[in-house]
Specification:
heterotrimer; B: alpha+beta; FAD/NAD(P)-binding domain; 5-stranded antiparallel beta sheet; globular; C: alpha+beta; Fumarate Reductase Iron-sulfur Protein, Chain B, domain 2; two-stranded antiparallel ribbon; 9 helices
Amino acid sequence: MERAGLLRFWDSSVGKKVVMGATGLILVAFVILHMAGNLQFFSGSERFNAYSHLLQVDLIELTWLMRITLLGAVVLHITAAYQLTMRNRAARPAGYVKREPQVSTYAARTMRWGGVYLLLFIPYHILHFTTGTLHPAFVRRAAYGNVVIGFQVMWVALFYLGAMAFLGLHLYHGAWAMFRTLGIARPSNDPLHRRLALAIAIIVPAGFSLLPLSVMLGFMH
Amino acid sequence: MTTKLDARIPAGPLAEKWDKHRFEMKLVNPANKRKYHVIVVGSGLAGASAAASLSELGYRVSCFCFQDSPRRAHSIAAQGGINAAKNYQNDGDSEWRLFYDTIKGGDFRAREANVYRLAQVSVNIIDQCVAQGVPFAREYGGLLANRSFGGAQVSRTFYARGQTGQQLLLGAYQALEKEIARGGVTMHSRHEMLDIVVIDGRARGIITRDLVTGAVEAHVADSVVLGTGGYGNVYYLSTNAKGCNVTATYRAYKKGAAFADPCFTQIHPTCIPVAGEHQSKLTLMSESLRNDGRVWVPKKKEDCGKKPGEIAEGDRDYYLERKYPSFGNLSPRDIASRAAKEVCDEGRGVGPGGRGVYLDFADAIKRLGEHTIRERYGNLFEMYERITDEDPYKQPMRIYPAVHYTMGGLWVDYNLMSTIPGLHVIGEANFSDHGANRLGASALMQGLADGYFVLPSTIGDYLAGVKVDGLTAEHAAFREAVDGVNARTARLLGIKGTRTADSIHRELGHIMWEKCGMSRNAAGLKEALVAIPKLREEFWSNVCIPGTGAELNQSLEKAGRVADFLEFAELMCTDALQREESCGAHFREEYQTKDGEALRDDEHFAYVSAWEYAGEGMPPVLNKETLEFENVHLSTRSYK
Amino acid sequence: MKVVLHVWRQASASAAGKLVDYQADDISPDMSFLEMLDVLNERLIVRGEDPIAFDHDCREGICGSCGMMINGAAHGPMKLTTACQLHMRSFSDGDEIWIEPWRAKAFPVIKDLVVDRGAFDRIIQAGGFVSAPTGSAQDGNAIPIPKQAADDAMDAAACIGCGACVAACPNASASLFTAAKISHLGELPQGQPERMKRALAMVHQMDLETFGGCTLFGECQEACPKGISIDTIAQMNRDYIFAAATEREATDVLGSG
């Protein structure tokens, strides 16, 4: 049954993909800011705890606004991704015996599994560093110490690094594809070539990973 | 018994005939149009444009094609362009000039009135196609670009890269799909027409085979339109698509439609030569290559096996430049083709089987630089290399003539109606406008002229005169025709011999190419007329068709088409034998000047030969439509 | 040369299919891929076996009839080339070659390598045209069209509707096909009046036909024998977003189509 207006937009494959692109844009912007903020960790505990205080006390209304926006974006992003995946699978019920991908990247082919990994990672991350529920020695407003102690657990640090690897792959495809999906990419003689996305995909996960790595290697304590 | 051929050419001055005729024709009341059902067979430029335009007028239309989609009809492969007398280039073109060039190009074997009308509506075609979104080439100022094509003295050819046929067909196809969506046209893809049904002297429907299920179906209509293309595949190897066939027009012929000038077939000089026995089709390369390429073969037979680079300049025979000093490598299609065959017959041909001549760009590259040549012909050179694995920048291309277009077709009057009332024939399937030879870039023009502008006007004149009568497929004539188709299928499947239809088709092609190809003589044609019936017998006793009729069976489809070619080939040879003159693409060796030029005989042969089927085993009856030339002077061409 | 073929054989739409092995001897490197199949078929017929059914017509790479997965790539290993223009010299003596039909729910197999691509026609029916009834056109030069726009339109219009984009897409998406037509007509002034309606209706039809969605793998562009760019997909999405944002009523948009 065909629906009208926004609902029809949502029903269409292009509409859903546009929702993924638009929410992706929000999420990419967020991870860039988040990563930049995290780097204050290397300015020492005082500075980092002040930053945490700013977000969690002084600007708490803004933080909540952001959290709600992000939650909405993530829910839409995942719902659309799930529904499109189901549709795409149904579009080819009988597969090929022999199949050779020609140009598709590893990143593009791992978007779905990487997405699932990140979906598991994000709640853990919130329960770990935001609420402290899953943190072994969480102290409210003592962000610096929480990070150091949190990453001293080896499997946790590895789980984080794994998430960053998938985040990199996700960004390498997503931060390029979203502009094309939203129809704002410029025509190009080599549309598969991506520079901005490559930069984001390297810088963002690398920036995030510096924290667990530096703790694991004992540089920060 | 002979049919009275009445071309129904309107009286009055040439330039006013069409307008006057359109006024005088009867019209169908707009409210009544949807009561009339028109069947269009074929979905190429002519068929698709006719089906769409008739539906827009309000008729109920059913359209049939054997391909999986109407977009695949072979019009799609035309490369060069489409002519129109727009005179956008201010170089002296006019309707009159396009008319005259077409009549002269056809060596004065076409009807003046039809050709003039073609020139008149040519301008509307361009407008129509632009409005549909056909992306014609444009100049920087945004206006339409033109080029000169096929030796024309004016630039009147419109083009869309090297894909003009494709873009024009997609325009017509999209118009057709628009009408299908609106409900005006019912499309039957993967359906092949296998017979036509004539009741009380009128074409009333067709019998088709659903190529997927094998179901044989009867379709009733008030008029039937054939836009089923040409029969070049009678030669097996041609530039036509593999599926092109004579079946629809030949079955119509057997039901009483006269077949006109079947021996007029155009041979194109610049095709990629045959590589071996496996060759399934020939690929055309644009004639524009001859603007910069020089045609040659070795002077001595012994040199033919050598690499071209090893043959010294003095040992090369630039035979076109030698024989035709003023036109040289740009000699007309038929002259260039015959000259190539001649040198190969002398044993001086190059490449596999000795069936090829060199087209050499070395001088042009030296003179203009490789860059310029790449700019002009890059795509063609790439295509050539893809097929032959030879680099034409480094060694000369090899070319050979191939069958390209058939000017002959079902006879039609000025209204495009055949000798069976209610059966209209459009595009390459009819004989009407090109005479004995067709100008480059005129096939697309004629297909669209017929489909968009001529038939939609003239069919009303016929339909206004017939009553809608509630005829159904239960009528005995339909049942009989269905039974006939089924019986033939059963007979074909029952032979269970040892040869494939393709192998017999190849053999037929060989006979036709040798005896009824670019030059013919009475002795050869008579030999062909003995050999063809023998081969036909071989076919009907020894062809092998696996599978059944109730499924997708490509061997069966092929065999059915070959069976018709095997009968039709005889008609072609009969026609070629009877036309004791050389004109246009029809070159009878007995009728040439001492310089080897075609010798036309206007006194005895200025007529259209319209052959009438006289029954199984009976020789066909020749009817003649005398061609009257009131507006042009019959001149003889010379390319010396 | 000799090659070993593994060919998908399926008697009808409802029958089960399987890969069948064939040895093709005495193959000339100058044969086109389809001529190689012709030769094999003639041998099969004489042996009383059912030949391999495959769609083909013009054999010069323009009609779009032929198409098959050859060693896991749509139309085989050569770029910008349809199966009919692929030659056996692209393979080596003794090679094994897997030949399978296009695979998509929207392209059901009819027999062997022949599939039903009627869905493409229906996408065009939804709006892939300019409504310009015969006779209603103004002079062809009445509206100048910038050369760049005409060239871009031609780039997109080069699509031959073969279905390789769908076959190559991991999602069996028809986005490149649909976008090529939307871009072709959207580039031209003649296509403007119906541009928004066209984008909405064609995308809708594409979804109805059960094609998958675009996730920008890029495989379609690589497989396309005419080199249609995924830039057209960005254009399609742009038109779709704009159309969805500005449409008034759904009933207006779909019309009688």
